[in-house]
Amino acid sequence: GAVVSQHPSRVICKSGTSVKIECRSLDFQATTMFWYRQFPKQSLMLMATSNEGSKATYEQGVEKDKFLINHASLTLSTLTVTSAHPEDSSFYICSARDQGGGSSPLHFGNGTRLTVT
Amino acid sequence: QKEVEQNSGPLSVPEGAIASLNCTYSDRGSQSFFWYRQYSGKSPELIMSIYSNGDKEDGRFTAQLNKASQYVSLLIRDSQPSDSATYLCAVNRIDSWGKLQFGAGTQVVVTP
Question: How far away is chain B from the Cα of A78, in angstroms, using its nearest Cα?
């Protein structure tokens, strides 16, 4: 099945620094990837849709200048949390489809647990 | 009204029994429906997908879809302690990018 690799799995950073999270599709090309965030005991909240070769589309309430998304190739999307603060501490998960159709299921990376101190 | 609603649980199920999970959605035009399992601290993994009305069985799992009632369910037969997890219902929103909308999840606890 489709494999989505996410790195790092865990990161601790100081308040005010930036953190980059990578999401790779290992055995397929993904023109679109999705970035989710999950706070403890809450469901996944879609942050943005990452489109290869174009600007990402952000969900309402998500600051595009704070959460920078780059989708420079068909197999790699990155999420950079800029000037991180403790309230940004969360579980960030990327996902992608291995087929072009929008009705097929999403495959998720293993997630990145971000802790901002 | 939330777009995708699930009972949060926890749903306590004796080992060997059937766990029944329910999910309702608000967008009548939704076309694709998925159940994901998420263990604590891990990312979701796909269990079932269902696209048409009726039942779909895969091993110990059965998904049921009723579009007229905007209702999708998941049955887990012969529940095992390893089934203890949070189960997320996801619905495909009707747009060109196929974004999934998730419910809050139902926590299932299978007791030996």
Answer: 18
User: Is residue A112 exposed (0-12), middle (13-18) or buried (19+ Cβ within 10 Å)?
Assistant: buried
What's the CA gap between B99 and A90, in Å, rounded? 21
pLDDT (mean) for B81-94: 91
Question: Using alpha carbons only, how large is chain A's radius of gyration in Å?
Answer: 13
Span B40-67, pLDDT tens digits:
999 999 999 999 999 999 999 999 999 9
- Residues in Cβ contact with B64 at an 8 Å cutoff, skipping those fewer than 6 apart: B50, B54, B55, B56, B72, B73, B74, B75
Chains A and B form CB pairs within 8 A to the count of: 60
Whether residues B45 and A108 touch (CB distance < 8 A) is answered with yes
* Dist CA B96 CA B98 (whole Å): 6
| Mean pLDDT of the region A18-28 | 94
Residues in a beta bridge with A24: A5, A76
Chain B hits for A94, Cβ within 8 Å: none
Look at residue A100 and tell me whether its pLDDT is greater than 70: no
